[in-house]
Design a protein that fits this description.
The complex is a heterodimer of chains A (about 375) and B (about 525).
Chain A lengths: L5 H26 L4 H13 L2 H26 L7 H18 L5 H30 L3 H24 L21 H5 L15 H18 L1 H11 L1 H6 L4 H28 L10 H11 L4 H24 L4 H17 L1 H19 L1
Chain B lengths: L5 E10 L2 E11 L4 E6 L5 H8 L7 E6 L2 E2 L5 H6 L2 E4 L11 H6 L9 H18 L14 H14 L4 E5 L7 H16 L3 E6 L2 H7 L2 E6 L2 E7 L5 H9 L17 E11 L5 E11 L2 E6 L6 H9 L5 E6 L2 E2 L9 H6 L2 E4 L3 H5 L6 H5 L18 H14 L16 H13 L5 E5 L7 H16 L3 E5 L3 H7 L2 E6 L2 E6 L6 H8 L10 H20 L1
Helix pairs in contact in B: 14-15
Classes of the chains: A mainly alpha (about 375), B alpha/beta (about 525).
Chain lengths: ~375, ~525
């Protein structure tokens, strides 16, 4: 018998964790002499009550969906890929090269090309740690995190010495050509009378992220490759028994994982910045870990968790802008949410399991 | 009659919704050997854990020598004169016997006086109970049988009057088991009370005075061993009549399907686990591999099943198969018609977190009839197939969507056996087919193996249960230290001879059996240590 029903595991546990995080955050806000209810209202107001706020929330959520899926796919093969940052950075490089050096006739073709380049570059960056793990037994956590640093340095070099237009002062590429401009939500949803999502960075990549969620779900639960990835993740010895090649699965899972991270760049680099800048990932690679944890490594859960973190990001920015609450405190609140939904999962889960057991015993 | 050494009255213990012990009452007379028998999960271990202070009973009382006693922890159990020998020994491997004996009962910060005292005490105990172990030997150099003696010594040194042994013969050769039983008989003579927990009927009949039978958390009967028989005990354990002997017609072997020549395997530490094994299995016969766990049987199955590479030659239906390269994995083996029920169903045969239907496709997930199209698997087809197999093999509950871990051991094993046998393989490799499986399911699985044999398939059976090997096999090969010690026909051998072969002794030993066994064990361990370095 499972200890508690699936719905409680998937919804109740994260919800209670979230409420606990909110309560603790309120105490922190009270501690610095501000009103937590006002602050919360401010966040909701800024992130959810206007379409432009939604535009930012969905933009962040798109980033987090890609990096959350990246962590989840690797996790199903019991590989802890924390190299999302580096893979996003390389994805950005791929997008920049595709946008700058290929004369695209139309944005849709440009998106196809840059998406492919982003996935390829991200996957290639994940390949080296994957190979070292599969063939040499290196620890994936160590190699992927080291590759984050290598990626940062590499990008630094490329931006400063190779891709920076002559005469420009900042380490960034030139602006991408007009033909590669992706339709923003403002352009897509505004009518003659009302402007929607005014000035916000959300763009068509959001739908690609949603499609990626669906594709990852189908991959993991409907295809033979997904079956093998999950089997390998649950038990390497059993996978070996079944004739599933551990080297192959490790490398393929990491390639898919890296490709998903890399694809975040179509949202942030091509969709929003329209040029490649330093530190283009904005930490999304790491947020992806929390998103995947909270989403139980399930694409639908990741979709919801990405929305929540998008809200926290945008709401937090609004809060810092409009209230006396310092920006650092926003980070504290975000950290508390990660702490409760991710790291302290069992703290909520175990009492809840006991409760369900007791309830079931009462029935019997 | 004097007061019972231990009396339990109305002991109950529940873990969540599972009632592990229900209203258990039992009285163990002093100076007797009392057997507790029951299937896996019947609640034997829980009961003993309560007695040793690991768990607290929800209800009930414990009386030691007529006195009501609380046992909140193991210290209290020791103080009450209870000693426990666990299935998995609790010894520090790189300590000497003496150091292990005093561990936890040192007299002070300095060890020297305690060691001296223990040395004297051990000499005394050794003389009194005929229980000899070198006090200065380091544990890891001792054979399993001797390590078990150290556990008994530990209990005696703590002045235990009541000794509980949990499945003590699981890790022993038959010869070592006999020695253990002699020690227990001697302890009984000296007035100790012994509780023997086991699932082996033979041991109960051989050594106990009284036997209590447990089933599903309840004590179903307590009878004098002299007044019962194995059939009756089996019925009490399972709750219905059970066929203890496997019924089978004589085998009618055909051509050799599996031929192994000079097979060698070196493990990742550089130790040779198979040292030139040659054997063959013919159509319509069961070749049983007997041996104490850890003598190369697992490695043999793993090479044949494609889980490990090896050197030598293996022919299947006359064709040589790849042992190291691209075609040496489990998929290639399955294509050759080799099905494999691995020794460890929880770590290898099943994905515990997968649902039953996902496990039924496991290893055969490339089967075209499980695919919907080039992209997707046909999950509905797999579920339908699973439902059919569950029905045929009487898997309970017959729910394809239940996770493997939520089935009992017997039903898990039935899922694996159904998956492999229903593939109609030319060769079935089957390791420990009934380990941790209840008696009812054992009967069923044995019938399936025999039926497969009768349909003309070749079966290679590996089991540490000598009874199982003797009753199922048409030929028996005995392995010791990575080699085949000899082959026998079941009709022309007996447990004694097989037991000696399992200890690496062919023919009658010159001196005492015990010494010869110890000598062989020592040689084996020396070789392994040498290659390891």
């Amino acid at each position: 018998m499972d200890k508690m029903p699936a719905w409680a595991d998937a919804i109740l546990v994260p919800l209670i964790s979230l409420i606990l995080a909110a309560l603790l955050s309120s105490l922190v806000i009270l501690g610095i002499g501000e009103n937590p209810i006002d602050a919360f209202q401010q966040m909701v107001q800024g992130a959810l009550m206007q379409s432009s706020g939604w535009g930012y929330t969905l933009y962040y959520a798109t980033n987090f969906m890609f990096t959350g899926l990246c962590v989840a796919v690797a996790f199903h093969a019991r590989l802890f890929n924390i190299g999302g940052e580096g893979q996003v950075a390389l994805g950005g490089l791929g997008v920049a090269l595709a946008c700058l050096y290929i004369p695209w006739p139309h944005w849709s073709l440009a998106l196809l090309g840059s998406g492919l380049a982003a996935a390829l570059f991200g996957a290639a960056w994940a390949f080296v740690p994957a190979y070292l793990t599969a063939k040499r037994g290196s620890h994936i956590v160590i190699t992927t995190i080291m590759f984050n640093f290598i990626a940062a340095s590499l990008l630094n070099y490329v931006l400063v010495n190779v891709l920076r237009p002559t005469g420009a002062m900042d380490p960034a590429t030139a602006k991408f050509p007009e033909a590669t401009h992706l339709p923003s939500f403002q352009e897509m949803f505004s009518t003659a009378e009302t402007v929607m999502f005014r000035g916000s960075p959300a763009n068509i990549s959001f739908f690609i992220a949603v499609a990626a969620c669906c594709a990852v779900w189908a991959l993991l639960w409907r295809t033979r490759l997904g079956y093998e990835i999950r089997a390998f993740g649950h038990s390497e010895s059993a996978a070996k028994y079944a004739g599933i090649n551990p080297v192959r699965i490790t490398i393929i899972a990491m390639l898919i994982s890296g490709a998903l991270a890399g694809m975040m760049a179509i949202n942030s680099t091509q969709g929003e910045a329209e040029r490649l800048v330093l530190n283009a990932s904005e930490g999304a690679g790491f947020i992806g870990i929390a998103v995947a944890l909270m989403g139980r490594n399930h694409p639908f859960g990741i979709f919801l968790a990405a929305l929540l973190f998008g809200f926290l990001y945008q709401g937090g920015a609004e809060l810092a802008f409009w209230s006396g609450i310092p920006r650092e405190l926003i980070v504290v609140i975000q950290a508390l949410v990660i702490l409760f939904t991710g790291a302290l999962d069992n703290m909520v889960r175990m009492p809840l399991e006991k409760l369900f057991l007791a309830m079931r015993k009462g029935d019997a | 009659m004097s007061a019972p050494a231990i009396e339990l009255r109305g002991i109950s213990k529940a873990f969540g919704p599972v009632q592990a012990n229900k209203d258990i009452s039992i009285a163990v007379q002093p100076g007797t050997i009392h057997g507790i028998i029951g299937e896996n999960g019947a609640g034997k271990s829980t009961l003993m854990s309560i007695l040793y202070g690991f768990y607290k009973a929800d209800a009930g009382e414990i009386f030691i020598k007529g006195q009501p006693t609380q046992i909140p922890d193991s210290q209290a159990a020791i103080a009450a004169g209870i000693g426990m020998v666990f299935q998995h020994f609790k010894l520090v491997q790189n300590f000497t016997v003496l150091e292990n004996v005093i561990l936890g009962v040192e007299d002070g910060a300095m060890l020297r006086p305690s060691l001296a005292k223990a040395r004297k005490a051990l000499t005394q105990i050794a003389a009194e109970y005929d229980l000899h172990v070198d006090p200065d030997a380091v544990i890891e150099t001792l054979s399993v049988g001797h390590q078990q003696r150290v556990e008994i010594l530990k209990a005696l040194y703590r002045q235990a009057d009541i000794l509980i042994l949990d499945e003590p013969t699981g890790v022993l050769t038959p010869a070592e088991a006999d020695q253990l039983f002699r020690i227990l008989a001697r302890l009984k003579e000296e007035g100790k009370t012994i509780i023997l927990i086991t699932h082996k009927l033979r041991e109960i009949m051989e050594i106990t005075d009284t036997v209590s039978v447990m089933r599903r958390g309840q004590m179903t009967a307590t009878v004098k061993t002299s007044e019962t028989n194995p059939e009756e005990l089996a019925e009490l354990m399972v709750g219905r009549k059970v066929l203890l002997r496997v019924e089978k017609a004589p085998s009618n072997p055909g051509a050799a399907v599996l031929e192994v020549e000079n097979l060698r395997v070196v493990d990742s530490f550089g130790v040779e686990r198979l040292r030139g094994v040659s054997l063959h299995v013919r159509q319509g016969e069961i070749l049983g591999i007997a041996g104490v766990a850890g003598n190369g049987q697992s490695e043999l199955l793993e090479v044949l099943g494609g889980m490990r590479s090896g050197e030598g030659r293996i022919r299947v239906n006359g064709e040589e198969i790849d042992l190291t390269g691209k075609h040496s994995d489990g998929q290639s083996r399955r294509k050759r018609g080799i099905a494999h029920v691995p020794e460890d169903r929880q770590e290898e045969g099943l994905i515990m977190e997968y649902m039953a239907w996902e496990n039924v496709a496991f290893g055969y997930h490339h089967d075209p009839k499980y695919q919907k199209n080039a992209l997707f698997m046909d999950n509905a087809a797999i579920r339908a197939d699973t439902a059919a197999k569950m029905e045929k093999f009487d898997v309970r509950p017959p729910n394809p969507r239940l996770k493997a871990r939520n089935f009992s051991g017997g039903n898990q094993q039935k899922i694996v056996v159904a998956r492999e046998i229903e593939r109609d393989p030319d060769i079935l490799l089957i390791g420990q087919p009934t380990r941790g499986v209840d008696i009812g399911a054992i009967e069923f699985i044995h019938e399936q193996i025999i039926a497969l044999r009768d349909s003309g398939k070749a079966i290679l059976l590996v089991s540490v249960e000598l009874d199982e090997i003797m009753s199922l096999s048409d030929r028996i090969a005995v392995m010791f230290d990575g080699k085949i010690m000899g082959e026998r026909l079941p009709s022309e051998t007996d447990e004694r001879e097989l037991g000696l072969l399992m200890a690496g002794i062919s023919g009658e030993p010159e001196g005492s059996v015990a010494e010869a066994v110890a000598e062989q064990m020592r040689k084996k361990e020396e070789r392994e240590a040498e290659q390891h370095g």
